[in-house]
């Protein structure tokens, strides 16, 4: 059984550092607001239109911590709707502003929350979406070079060497694991240790 109490603690900590997390997250563009390409940002913020074939009946409207409205669409909305109440509580409030949601250079769509991020390889209805949590999300967001080592000049999130998420988090004992196109990240709750593996090689966490 998932230890949701630990997730709640992580969500509080992540929420306090939300600004720095999303700045290093799924989109590496520093001069292009996420709303420019966003398929999940608040319509009131971006005014962005979805494709003509998008089914708005399944959109989900949420409130940020400061009361702004964020509208989830497509696979992001579907994943959030399918989450349990405990998972939604652990995700916490959605984040807003530059880099909190949108489309990365690799085409991955994302929405950051206080306690994690929901991503999908594209914004098409029916595309699988995954939740990446807490410290695993933090390690995935770290900017890395092509070999996976931390590098301020590199890229993080789905544009980094790990690539896009390919699974929800799995749990074996105290060890949580999320997989990505080119590797995996594990988090041991007992030792509080994060291990990042890129293309079969263990690399520095940060």
Can you give a write-up of this model?
By secondary structure, the chain is of the alpha+beta class. It has a domain at 62-203. It is built from six helices and eleven strands. The chain has helices at residues 4-16, 18-23, 43-46, 74-82, 85-91, 134-141, and strands at residues 60-63, 69-72, 101-103, 109-112, 116-120, 129-133, 170-172, 175-180, 183-188, 193-198, 201-203. The strands form three sheets. Strands 7-8-9-10-11 form a five-stranded antiparallel sheet, covered by helices on one side. A four-stranded antiparallel sheet has the order 3-4-5-6. A hairpin with a 2-residue loop joins β10 and β11. α1 (4-16) runs parallel beside α5. The longest helix is centred in the first third of the chain and has 13 residues, at 4-16.
- Specify the number of helices: 6
The strand count comes to 11
- Average pLDDT number: 81
Helical amount among residues, as a percent range? Answer: 10-25%
Query: What is the gyration radius calculated from CA atoms?
Result: 16 Å
- Helix-strand pattern: HHHEEHHEEEEHEEEEE
Structural class per helix/strand content? Answer: alpha+beta
Q: What overall form do the CA principal axes indicate?
A: globular
């Amino acid at each position: 059984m998932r230890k949701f109490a630990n997730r709640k603690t992580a969500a509080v900590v992540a929420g306090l550092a939300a600004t720095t997390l999303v700045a290093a997250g799924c989109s590496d563009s520093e001069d292009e607001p996420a709303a420019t390409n966003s398929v999940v940002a608040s319509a009131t913020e971006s005014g962005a239109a979805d494709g003509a074939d998008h089914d708005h009946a399944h959109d989900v409207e949420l409130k940020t911590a400061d009361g702004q409205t964020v509208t989830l669409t497509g696979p992001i909305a579907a994943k959030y709707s399918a989450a349990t109440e405990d998972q939604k509580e652990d995700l916490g409030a959605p984040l807003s502003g530059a880099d909190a949601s949108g489309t990365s250079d690799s085409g991955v769509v994302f929405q950051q929350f206080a306690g994690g991020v929901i991503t999908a390889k594209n914004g098409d209805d029916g595309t699988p979406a995954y939740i990446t949590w807490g410290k695993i999300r933090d390690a995935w967001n770290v900017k890395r070079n092509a070999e996976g080592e931390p590098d301020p000049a590199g890229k993080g999130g789905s544009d980094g060497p790990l690539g896009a998420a390919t699974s929800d988090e799995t749990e074996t004992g105290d060890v949580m694991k999320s997989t990505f196109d080119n590797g995996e990240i594990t988090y041991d709750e007992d030792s509080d240790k994060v291990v990042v593996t890129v293309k079969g090689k263990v690399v520095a966490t940060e």
